[in-house]
Design brief:
By secondary structure, the protein is an alpha+beta fold. Helices cover 38% and strands 21% of the residues. The strands form seven sheets. Strands 2, 3, 4, 5, 10, 19 and 20 form a seven-stranded mixed beta sheet that branches. A six-stranded antiparallel beta sheet has the order 13-12-11-24-23-22, with helices on both faces. The N and C termini lie far apart (118 Å). 37% of the residues are buried.
Length: 654
């Protein structure tokens, strides 16, 4: 028995020793580890208010976009507030706020009516709908729509103007996530701000704060390019949450503000809440400043010229369907965009539509002939200096295809200078494997279309330029293939391109080597650090012999001095360029059918010819319409380009 007791005592001692060792391990050795665990459970990390976004400047440091403090009234729902209390609150507060109540829609009214008369509305539903909902055959959303459809205009007639004000305010108080601060009014008056800043039990959930908004210093200038900021949308919620944003953050929604949001957004202060007190653990930081390649003085001048000439043109003959034009100016040696302009004329007002430079497309006409003749040279289908007769082309069972007039014998330089369609037609038929004979059938090889398009793409026609903006189009590529369409492709009368695509084409020709990615970003200033954009070469045109490029450049210079581009640019500035005209169509009676023939024009140029500093492209859709009374085409492009290049010459080249 004594032996058993001794063994039991030993086991007890060992147990106590193990317990003591374990306590020592937990309390001494692992103290810091468990202290951190405890703090993690008892402390809460919170973020401060949004910091100002970075500013946006032009290439020379002129401020384009700044931040401005605005007085804001917001509402934070109390989790204990009842529906009746919140409606009562809306009715009380409406008398102390001036809001734009015109934004109240019938849909909002129906939502509110359903909220307060749901039992009555359910009685109007048929039993099958209710049964389907109970059996989960229809979703909550579908069931809600069924109920909402039962609300009639007669039901809504009970609401007077004062009711509608309260209903709209109630909508603002509940629009979005329940835990968010709801912005009720931005830019509140001093009186409103002071009233809602008071501690007033009748204003439960309402409060004030200063928030930041964007200030665009040049008004409408570049507005569609700079973009907008706004609250995070439902469809992008997960994307922003994964990147560490809060759901009530203001983010870039379009173009520059969106593309560079990660740099422009500020970093919030970080606090830890300990015993209900906030302790700052990390300072906030304003967003990084952005410097664009835009020259704001050149941009403003180009916008003013385009808008002025657009208004003048609308008072001219045959401009019934003309309402817009696009213009871009770039540096052909690195792809930087110096000015990007789009203007649209609606309701006798001019508005910014600069984004159309990258989104809207049209058939450009003869401006592409510089690339077209290079296809002929490089594929061995035409020789430098080769003469052809400019005569109408006639294929079996098709109408004649001609130049604007019969030009007789002419060589390659004259063909570009005078803009001969026939010269390009004959080259295209050779590329397509056709031995042309008058009024005989012609069957071109399908790969001829690929040959042309592959060359065109090397210059930027039919592909995206890579511009750092949203929704860039690469244009439309026709799918049908026959001899007539191949000839049309060669003169810019089949595929469509954007204005910036035309600019990239002429810029690539100008530098004679590289197709650069078009870009608006110059650099980002991140504190003391500067992140500069490095030019990106998308492809080279080394496969085209230099003698062919020099021949085309010689022809483009003749276009301005002796050809169709005479008078477009002062010869003192040593310019080169190419005009273009194409037949297009508009839907004149809005029936979905594009039946009315119009004329669209384009022009591309670079200067000076020997050391190009500027590449320019203008696209003007539907400048004139074809009718039996007059063939007059307003010289819009010529007037714009002359004024613009005079400004460039006097301010940048002299």
């Amino acid at each position: 028995m004594t032996k058993k007791v001794n063994i039991l005592n030993i086991l007890l001692y060992l147990s106590f020793i193990l317990i003591l060792l374990r306590i020592y391990y937990l309390q001494i050795i692992k103290y810091d580890y468990y202290q951190e665990k405890l703090l993690a459970l008892t402390e809460k990390e919170v973020l401060g208010d949004t910091m100002p976004r970075g500013r946006i400047y032009d290439k020379s440091g002129n401020l384009l976009v700044d931040n401005t403090l605005i007085k804001t009234i917001y509402y934070k729902k109390d989790k204990n507030i009842s529906l009746e209390e919140e409606i009562e609150l809306a009715y009380f507060v409406k008398d102390y706020l001036e809001l734009d109540y015109s934004k109240l829609t019938t849909s909002y009214l129906k939502d509110f009516y359903l909220l307060t008369h749901e039992k009555e509305i359910i009685k109007r539903l048929n039993e099958l709908d209710i049964k389907n909902y109970k059996q989960r055959k229809i979703t909550d959303l579908e069931y809600y729509k069924l109920k909402k459809d039962q609300v009639t205009n007669e039901d809504l007639s009970i609401y007077k103007e004062e009711d509608k004000k309260a209903i709209y305010l109630y909508y603002l108080m509940n629009n979005g996530y329940s835990y968010d601060d709801k912005i009720i009014k931005k830019d509140a008056t001093d009186l409103e701000f002071a009233y809602f800043s008071e501690s007033n039990s009748k204003l439960k959930g309402f409060d004030t704060k200063y928030t930041y908004d964007r200030l665009y210093l040049y008004g409408d200038t570049l507005r569609t390019i700079l973009g907008n900021i706004g609250p995070i949308t439902m469809e992008n919620k997960n994307y922003y949450l994964e990147k560490g944003y809060s759901l009530n953050d203001m983010v870039g929604l379009t173009n520059i503000e969106y593309i560079y949001d990660d740099y422009l957004k500020g970093e919030k202060e970080v606090y830890k809440v300990v015993n209900n007190e906030k302790i700052l653990v990390k300072d906030g930081r304003v967003g990084n400043d952005l410097y664009l390649t835009i020259d704001i003085n050149l941009q403003k001048e180009a916008e003013n010229i385009l808008a002025t000439e657009l208004i003048k043109a609308k008072g001219s003959l045959n401009t019934n369907y003309f309402d817009r034009s696009y213009l871009s100016i770039t540096n052909p040696n690195d792809g930087s965009v110096l000015a990007i302009v789009g203007k649209i004329y609606q309701n006798k007002k001019i508005s910014d539509y600069s984004v159309g430079v990258i989104t809207d497309t049209m058939t450009p006409g003869s401006v592409v002939k510089g690339a077209s003749i290079l296809v002929g040279y490089n594929e061995g289908k035409v020789k430098i200096g080769e003469f052809m007769i400019d005569e109408c082309i006639k294929l079996k069972a098709t109408p004649k295809k001609c130049s604007i007039y019969t030009m007789g014998y002419l060589n390659d330089l004259d063909a570009i200078k005078k803009s001969s369609n026939v010269y390009q037609f004959k080259i295209a038929l050779r590329v397509g494997g056709v031995n042309y004979r008058y009024d005989q059938p012609a069957y071109v090889k399908d790969e001829a279309f690929d040959i042309y398009r592959n060359y065109f793409k090397e210059f930027g026609l039919g592909v995206k330029t890579g511009i750092d903006l949203l929704n860039e189009s690469k244009g439309y590529q026709g799918s049908k293939k026959d001899a007539g369409l191949l000839m049309n492709l060669a003169i810019g009368q089949y595929d469509t391109y954007t204005n910036l695509g035309l600019n990239q084409y002429i810029a690539t020709l100008a530098n004679g080597k590289n197709r650069y990615q078009m870009h608006l970003l110059k650099e980002i200033k991140k504190g003391e650090e500067v992140l500069s954009f490095k030019p990106v070469v998308l492809n080279t045109i080394d496969n085209i012999k230099e003698e062919y490029l020099l021949r085309v450049k010689k022809a483009l210079k003749l276009v301005i001095s002796e050809g169709t581009g005479q008078g477009y640019i002062n010869l003192l500035y040593n310019p080169s360029g190419k005009t273009g005209t194409s037949e297009t169509f508009v839907d004149s009676n809005q029936d979905g059918i594009y039946e009315t023939k119009t004329i669209s024009t384009s022009f591309v140029s670079y200067l000076p010819s020997d050391k190009p500093q500027f590449a320019i492209a203008i696209s003007t859709p539907n400048i004139s319409y074809i009718n039996s009374y007059s063939s007059y085409i307003y010289p819009f492009n010529k007037l714009v380009i002359r004024k613009l290049t005079d400004y460039i010459g006097q301010n940048y080249l002299s």
